Amino acid sequence: MRLALLWLLVPLAVAQLPFNIFNIPETIRTPLVETYFDVMKLDTQCFRDIKKSFNQMLLAFLTAQKCKTIDCLMDEKVTNATYAMKMLAATGHPHSLDWDELSLTWAGDPKLCRNIDGPFETKYCFLHVTIDWTKIDFESFGFSLSFLPGGKIPDFDIGDANIDRCSTMSVNNVKLALCLPASCEKDPNIGRIISEATNGTAKICEISCVGPKKEPSAFFYFFNVAFTSLIAIAVGSSILDYIATRNGMDVELKGRTTWKVITAFSIPRNTSDLFSIRQRSDSIACLDAIRFITFTWVVNGHCDLFVGDGDNPIQLFRESDYIISDVLLNAYVSVDTFFLVSGLLVSYTFFKRVHTNPDCVYKPMNWIILTPAYLLFIAFYVAWTPQMHDIWAVGTAMNNTLFVQNCENYWWLNALYLNNFHAIQDLCYPPSWFLCVDTQLYWAAPLFLIAIYYSCKNNIRNQRRKTGLGAVLSGVLFSVGATVFLTAYYDLPAIGFTAKTTGNMDFMTQLYIKPWIRCIPYLTGIICGYFIVQVRKQTVKVRQPKMWELTLVWLFSTIVALTVIFSVYDYMRGESDWSVATRSFYGSFARIGWALAIAWVVLACTFNWAGPVKSLLEHPLWYPLGRLSYCAFLAHWFTLQLLLHGSDRPAHFVSLFQTYLTVTIPVVFMSYVMAWMWSCLVEIPFSKLEVIGVDLIIHRRRGHRDTNIVHAARSELNIEGKRPTDGAGITTIEVDNHH
Ligand SMILES: *[C@@H]1O[C@H](CO)[C@@H](O)[C@H](O)[C@H]1NC(C)=O
Ligand SMILES: *[C@@H]1O[C@H](CO)[C@@H](O)[C@H](O)[C@H]1NC(C)=O
């Protein structure tokens, strides 16, 4: 009863409106009145429902006004309007009235809306409204935007009419929660009325309501059946494997192809492969640690992005006032570390092999092996994301509908590893751009590898020696040139997150996801890999450096790395504007500096110049974590979504530290659980099947004679077909050759 009275207060305020309408300035009153009559004329189900609830509320108010006793409030006219008052009370409101908490996302009360027992079904929805802020004269309303970080609404100057703002991740859309009649979700009149009433300043992108986006498609059922079958196969295979091993039959079965195919899916086998802490003696041991640390860094960047897009986005910008925050906010170079590791492994494997078997060619094996895991994950994402359309999902600027739609339209571009040539908002499963660029660089790598190989083959002729270095240097120069040109041409910021330019999708599209911008660390990695092979094969002698030399290089690379991260401090928080020259200088040279600094860490660890850093980074604990990092990377965007999906309100940003503890750490953990599943069920089985297939084909062709080739093909895949207990290197399966 008391609650019912509270709800009465809201219509009370609304009901004052007609009496005060003449106090409202003419410019606002006219469209308001016009809108009112417009609404009254409409006769769709949605508007009939709205009018009905409004009339009942008004009647309740007029009745309640005359009441002298509490019993009078039990009148049907009042109680019948309870549902309407609940609808109104469930409407979104700012989570705080403090200016510092200024928010464009107003959440309401989803639970109240859910429990309404009215004459029609109600739904908790978010109205996503894109507003052309350039058309609003804040000064005339007495507002000053100077209190905002960067002195403006982020993303403000992209008020370009040519951009369809609805299909981008617009952080400056207004997101207002409403408890609406279910019939309104699809009613286009709401959008039309708002657009007309505001003279086109505001436009509705979407009315996004809680509940599955659409009926599960045939694909959803197909995927689930297929995936369940895969699990069933894995469980069956594990049981068979267990029984055979227990009865000592596995020795006898070992050589048979059918048995190999069956056990390829065995979960215990694959798990022990994955979690083995054995490392091949000739691998580069510190890379797993570097991969894992980089992975957590990347994940944290995405966590901040998702959580910052909540009901108090300004707070994320305020964090940039603390210089230490740059470590987390300026995570743009993190991915470059991945590229360095990739390039390094590709060239390391290549030169090692060339050394032992000069006829061996470069084969795109690893890429083929990783593709099933990747594509199956995309299928999983497409099947399940539309089903996860709950309270968090309806209010976020991350347009998952769009990303899934992109997958449906362009999944084949993903399969061909070409989707990064699209704009960022056309990506299917956003983090997939990384896999694309990585693969593209892998395709381009032979160019440089062969150039280096031939230039170093005949050491006697000095001119020839230069082609390899020349190829790499021209690659770097080309990349620098491209960065400078694109930055100047599109007037791009130096980094993606700054108080003034956030939301500038051009930066992402033109620079961030393009291979010609990203090739610098990859090329650095190639040189490093070559160098390591030469030193290990003792074709190049390196003398033990003196202590002061090592100290100097360590100091220098630390300073470079720190400069890359912290030099953007004033630029990021909007205190200083950088000229095109500065921006493009940072854009290209930060990448070079970072690549060199990380390359030094790898070299120092490998050649034992790193002291305690070496023992830390080469600890066996990192091996499984590094090995799983490919699948974990694949999964992290989805698990982040899953975590937030469990919430009953929009994300809320408190601080970077709090986000790290409450979001990043669980997401890293969940990603690894998922990565384990994916590796066990898809990645390892398919790579084993691939080996078996190659074996079979070669056997058939050569009639069992040329066992050398079988051997070469196997070592190509780094799989020796032994159990890890045999001390074999199965654990370095292909993952090694990707990040
Ligand atoms: C209140 O609702 C009941 C049940 O829906 C209906 O029978 C009754 O006529 C309504 N009363 C008024 C005054 O609208
Ligand atoms: C999300 O994308 C879809 C498909 O392009 C679009 O119709 C919708 O308006 C977008 N939603 C938002 C909130 O921008």
What does this structure look like?
By secondary structure, the protein is mainly alpha-helical. The N and C termini lie far apart (62 Å). The protein is globular and about 100 Å long. It is 61% helix and 4% strand. It folds into two domains: 207 residues, no CATH class; 491 residues, no CATH class. Strands 1-3-2-4 form a four-stranded mixed beta sheet. One 2-acetamido-2-deoxy-beta-D-glucopyranose (NAG) binds next to strand 4 and helix 18.
Q: Which helices and strands occur, and which strands form pairs?
A:
Blueprint (H helix, E strand, L loop, with lengths): L1 H19 L5 H16 L3 H22 L9 H4 L2 H8 L15 E2 L3 H5 L7 E10 L42 E8 L6 H10 L4 E8 L8 H29 L3 H4 L3 H7 L3 H9 L11 H22 L5 H6 L6 H4 L4 H23 L8 H20 L6 H5 L4 H16 L16 H26 L4 H29 L14 H8 L2 H22 L10 H20 L2 H4 L7 H27 L5 H6 L4 H6 L1 H17 L10 H47 L4 H10 L23
Bound molecules: 2-acetamido-2-deoxy-beta-D-glucopyranose (2 copies).
Features:
739 residues; mainly alpha; 4-stranded mixed sheet; 30 helices; 4 strands; 61% helix; 4% strand; binds 2-acetamido-2-deoxy-beta-D-glucopyranose
Segments where pLDDT lies below 50 for 5+ residues?
Answer: 156-162, 704-739
Query: Using DSSP, what is the number of strands?
Result: 4
Biggest sheet: strands, sense, closure? 4 strands, mixed
Globular, elongated, flat, extended or rod-shaped: what is the shape?
globular
